[in-house]
Amino acid sequence: MSASPTSDAAGSPGPAHVAIIMDGNGRWAKQRGLPRAVGHRQGVESVRAIITAAPELGIKVLTLYAFSTENWKRPALEVQALMGLLKSFLKSELAALHQNRVRVRCIGQIDRLPAGVRRILELAIAQTSANQGLVLNLALSYGGRAEITTAARRLAEECRAGLLNPEEINEELLSARLDTAGLPDPDLLIRTGGESRLSNFLLWQLSYAEIFITETLWPDFRQEQLQLALDDFRGRQRRFGRTPEQVSK
Ligand code: FPP
pTM of the prediction? Predict the structure, then answer.
């Protein structure tokens, strides 16, 4: 049997879906006596590097936590800087993403984004929708609790409309009403910046993800650090609730 494209030389499967909490931009800037926005700008360079490296390392889906529902509480100037970076990133990278067969999609409350960001995001999604390469899933104005709440409301509305019986509701039906519908759950969650929190990220979908936390700040996270996370993942035994003996059978 030939190794799958996500397998290493020893045949251990790599993660098909990697989700990343890109933390530490502010600290990276502070360490250098620079404004936080400079840290975010440097963070975009890491975004570029990781999008390029991901398919080469066998990753099929990459979800990046670029802006949370809670991030709206940051100072207006920082929010503005982040929105500006998102817009310029999508504008400058769209042609290259398309050429590299990347399919852009997003999760989150997109209607809360400034119109300019929304427009280029919608264009990127439409233009790359038929691409068969890496799925780049951008979490923008995203919050896990809000996402689950919306999915629950959708199910309730379907029940009220007589399309569904409450007894029929199961995990599959709820999953299909999340923003991530159609995507596999993440196999690996990476958090940069050393903190051990989920920060309202993919609360449903991360149920059985392996978690890798690195002290590396996001602006310093490049292909080499991604490779270390994947190597660590390959050393894990994923049991999905079973015993080690059951799994190794
Ligand atoms: C957390 O660092 C990072 C963010 C809130 C924003 C992440 C955004 C980018 C990397 C750039 C734009 C993204 C794309 C997809 C083009 P922090 O500011 O909380 O850092 P700190 O914990 O050190 O203060």
Answer: 0.93
Q: Which helix (H) or strand (E) holds 17?
A: strand 17-21
Structure tokens at 174: 């709820």
3-state secondary structure of 71: helix
State the number of CA atoms in the 13 A half-sphere of 132 facing the CB: 0
User: What is the amino acid identity at position 185?
Assistant: D
**Atom number, ligand 1, closest to the C-alpha of residue 86:** 16
Distances 21 to 56, 95, 111, 160 between C-alpha atoms, Å: 21, 25, 22, 37
Domains along the sequence of the chain with CATH: 6-142+186-239 (3.40.1180.10)
Give, using CA atoms, the residue closest to atom 7 of ligand 1. Answer: 66
Using CA atoms, how far apart are residues 159 and 146, in angstroms rounded to an integer?
20
Question: Could you give the residue ranges of the DSSP H alpha helices within the chain?
Answer: 25-31, 36-56, 76-99, 115-127, 144-160, 171-175, 223-234, 244-248
9: confidence class by pLDDT, cuts 50, 70, 90: low
| Residue nearest ligand 1's atom 15 by CA | 66
Q: Which residues are catalytic?
A: 23, 71
How much is the CA Rg of the chain, to the nearest whole Å? 19
Atom of ligand 1 lying closest to residue 89 CA? 16
Determine contact, residues 46/219, Cβ cutoff 8 Å: yes
Q: pLDDT tens, 153-172?
A: 999 999 999 999 999 999 99
Q: Which residues line ligand 1 (CB under 6 A)?
A: 22-27, 40, 43-44, 47, 64, 66, 71, 82, 85-86, 89, 138, 193, 218
Cα-to-centroid distance, 150 and ligand 1 (Å) = 25
